[in-house]
Amino acid sequence: MPSQLNLLRQLENREKVRITPTHYLKKWNLIFMLAALFILVLDFLILIALGKSFLTIGLIMLVSILPVFFVFYLRKHIKSTYMTGDALIFKSFDQTSKVTSLRSVRKVKTTSILGLQWTRLDYNLDGKHNSVLIVNVDFSDSTSTEHILTEAIDWSKKRKANHKPGPVAV
Fold first, then answer.
1. pTM value?
2. What is the pairing mode between strands 105-113 and 87-91?
3. Nearest of 83, 84, 73 to residue 132 by alpha carbon
4. How far is CA 62 from CA 52, 56, 67, in A?
5. Lowest-pLDDT range, 2-11, 98-107, 129-138?
6. Reported confidence tier of residue 141, pLDDT bands at 50, 70, 90
7. DSSP class of residue 78?
8. 121: exposed, middle or buried (Cβ count in 10 Å: 0-12, 13-18, 19+)
9. Dist. CA 89–CA 134, nearest whole Å
10. More confident residue, 164 or 109
């Protein structure tokens, strides 16, 4: 994660500032595949241990379906994120990208759970409310994702305010 001065310098020079690490979405795909494999093995072990009964099939469905819904939620909301100048660029698992201004961000909130930083970013794009989830490893000595984004948003708003045209004299 870049320091505050380095971040502002990179934004002024319109350099690419990564919020998420490289190969972020590929790593999440690997985690999702390993979780699916773990669930299949767990289902198989439950089936072997308890035999075929109505209760066993219900337990297997519960063990299988709830994580699948959670994975679908994460796949929809987790996006790879980087900034270039005033632009905030999101790339999703299906390789589609969305570009929005840093000034369109309405709320940035970070929560640390189980050694992970879960940062939710709410923004408006084309009159529609959108949200992005950024999940990073929580390093106590590094700068948080929320801090980096708020610094960039503040810089963008100040830059916009400084470039407003003055009053028009006739």
1. 0.71
2. unpaired
3. 73
4. 15, 10, 9
5. 2-11
6. very low
7. B
8. buried
9. 13
10. 109
